Every structure is written in C-alpha cells, then in structure tokens.
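Task: sequence in, structure out. Protein: Cys/Met metabolism PLP-dependent enzyme.
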Amino acid sequence: RDQLLLYRKDFGGVLGTKSAWAILVYGLPTLALRVRQQEKTAMEVARFLCSHPKVQYVSYPGLHTFPQYELAKKTNG
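Result:
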C-alpha cells in the first residue's frame, strides 16, 4: 500500500477510459489553435526578456539571435 501511494505521488493517478476519451475528443479540435496561441505567447515572453536589463541571454528558437534560427524556422513551417 505504501509503495502504491508513493507511485501515485510521483506519477499521478491514471485517468479512466471515459475521462480520457472526453479530454481527447473535446480537446483535439482546438489543439492547433491552442498551440498557435502558446507559440505567440512564448515569442512575446522571449522578446520581453531580451529587452529586460537584468536578463543577459535568451535562448529561444523563434528569435533571430538563436544559433540555429534558420533550421528552427524551416522545421516549424
């Protein structure tokens, strides 16, 4: 019993099939929209950090200063 509780603490519980199916079915149609919004937000955060005087370096593939920016742009579409 103690090992099971430790496992659940470290890895979380397992969703039931009905719960997992609902998350998949209702979440999948908006996945592309949510990912685009997350990319936009990440870029805003990266740009903000680049201009912040207390931040020395920002490593984000969407920034022109990223060493492999061209590769990231090519693989991202």
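DSSP finds four helices and no strands in the chain.
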